Amino acid sequence: MSGFDDPGVFYSDSFGAEPGGDDGRARRAQLQRRFWEFLRQFRAGAGCSFTYRDELKRHYNLGEYWIEVEMEDLASFDEDLADSLYKQPAEHLELLEEAAKEVADEVTRPRPAGEEVLQDIQVMLKSDASPSSIRSLKSDMMSHLVKIPGIIIAASAVRAKATRMSIQCRSCRNTLTDIAMRPGLEGYSLPRKCNMDQAGRPRCPLDPYFIMPNKCKCVDFQTLKLQELPDAVPHGEMPRHMQLYCDRYLCDKVVPGNRVTIMGIYSIKKLGLNSSRGRDKVGVGIRSSYLRVLGIQVDTDGSGRSFAGSVSPQEEEEFRRLAALPNVYDVISKSIAPSIFGGADMKKAIACLLFGGSRKRLPDGLTRRGDINLLMLGDPGTAKSQLLKFVEKCSPIGVYTSGKGSSAAGLTASVIRDPSSRNFIMEGVLLLLKTHTHHKHGGIGRRGGDDDHFGATFQVIAGLLQGGEDTSGLHHILSTSIKPPDIGEILLLADGDGLSIDDELPILSLDSAMELSP
């Protein structure tokens, strides 16, 4: 009869059940067990070796504490598990990394002396699924795994972010340790009041806590700016951008100008706009979107590709043998657009453009940049565009643009201030960045009314090459490129039919930045 008079405790949870209950913990343990079985037992085929177990062991022994998992492999092992990772990647990725850490602990035993402490393993994701575009990211895809292509146009410096933090009260020295930080761009709000028992002692002031840096566990992180591909931009519209968050081994994997395919979690963050009184001007529930990167694939094929391969010893020996030839200059120039007859001087100039010059510092302190800029003037139908397209295919990062379309909007780059670090960074204002810009301006200077336009264009170029600022508004004239911190090589074409311009202005513009003599 004991307890018959106990009325019980009834309560209402207004915010839903906590995931840390018994059922939630059992579910998490089950999922982590399935991830552990996948990493330990998966094989690409019958008779093949264990794919991820061997990769974990090899990477860990090399001091690279990461592994790349293909979503197709996970789907072939357990389709429900892969579907759960697609729909709830933030929760399941943590379990996958814990499972990878357990497998690494098993396959690396016994470890050498001094390396007994097991390192955390970062899991990167890769998928062969068709990518989406930035414009197709809607609210129903929030917190889901997405794959989008684009071009990196800005990259911040690598900084540190705390994953475990300790804080202390200034007044009573009360310490709160091992505070978990959520991954991504979300921060942590310090408590405004001390939670120490204040009985019999003075009350602690408001906002008493400060961070103890020596007791925090941090990881590297970097923010990138992704711009959608020129092919995906509707005619007449501006390209859209997306902020990316990379951490640990994903930092410093790409540079501005790389065409990439990003695999990540579509996330939101609180806007950091404050009014003069310090109050947030953004309404409740309004957030800014960003992408928490889980995998990066740098495109190595097609226009604007990036060369990521390695040179074999046989190829290196062949290059040395070619460099030792006395007529190597003629051999290289004849290899440029061999299907086009003649134009030896133009081909030699293009060869100098592709190889670039050497940066020189003179005894008087004057510095000459090694970037070579080239202007080709000629009658219509003299294979200027064919030479241009050949250069676009040979250059590591290059795109053929035309001044008649929206893809040629913008000149060089803009210098902006990073809102987080307050440092000045250089950002491309084109649809993309490239080490070589190849641009054909159709019909420039054909008639008398265009002569002033042509001369003003060269004034813009001359000012930009010497570190000036464009205030002419001629953003539809040409495309240029940058290789931070200098402007990169420029190759311009213009039809010279009936051209009448100032003879000195183009010469001054070109001579200020290049020498074409071999």
What's the total helix number? 11
Which architecture name of the largest domain does CATH use?
A: Beta Barrel
Q: Taking Cα atoms only, what radius of gyration do you get, to the nearest Å?
A: 29 Å
State the major sheet: 5 strands, mixed, barrel
Give helix % range: 25-40%
Write down how many β-strands occur, each being a DSSP E stretch of 2 or more residues. 20
Instruction: Sum up the overall morphology in one term.
Output: globular
Quaternary arrangement of the chains shown? single chain
End-to-end separation: 105 Å
Main structural class: alpha/beta
By CATH, the superfamily of the largest domain comes out as: Nucleic acid-binding proteins
Overall mean pLDDT:
74
GO molecular function, one term: ATP binding
Enzyme class: hydrolase
Subcellular location: Chromosome; Nucleus
EC number: 3.6.4.12
What this model shows, in words?
Residues 328-433 form the MCM C-terminal AAA(+) ATPase domain. It catalyses: ATP + H2O = ADP + phosphate + H(+). This is DNA replication licensing factor MCM5. Keywords: ATP-binding, Cell cycle, Chromosome, DNA replication, DNA-binding, Helicase, Hydrolase, Nucleotide-binding, Nucleus. There is one protein chain. The chain has helices at 22-41, 51-61, 71-77, 79-87, 89-107, 313-323, 328-334, 344-355, 384-394, 451-465, 504-511; strands at residues 66-70, 122-126, 145-155, 159-169, 175-180, 209-211, 217-227, 241-247, 259-270, 287-298, 360-361, 367-368, 374-378, 398-402, 413-417, 424-428, 436-441, 482-483, 486-487, 489-495. It has 3 domains: 22-126, 2-Layer Sandwich (mini-chromosome maintenance (MCM) complex, chain A, domain 1); 134-298, OB fold (Dihydrolipoamide Acetyltransferase, E2P), CATH 2.40.50; 348-511, no CATH class. β18 and β19 form a beta hairpin. The strands form 6 sheets. It has a 5-stranded mixed β-barrel with strand order 3-7-8-10-9. A 4-stranded parallel sheet has the order 13-20-17-14, covered by helices on one side. It has a two-stranded parallel ribbon with strand order 1-2. With 518 residues, the protein is of the alpha/beta class. The longest helix has 20 residues, at 22-41. The protein is globular. It contains 11 helices and 20 strands.
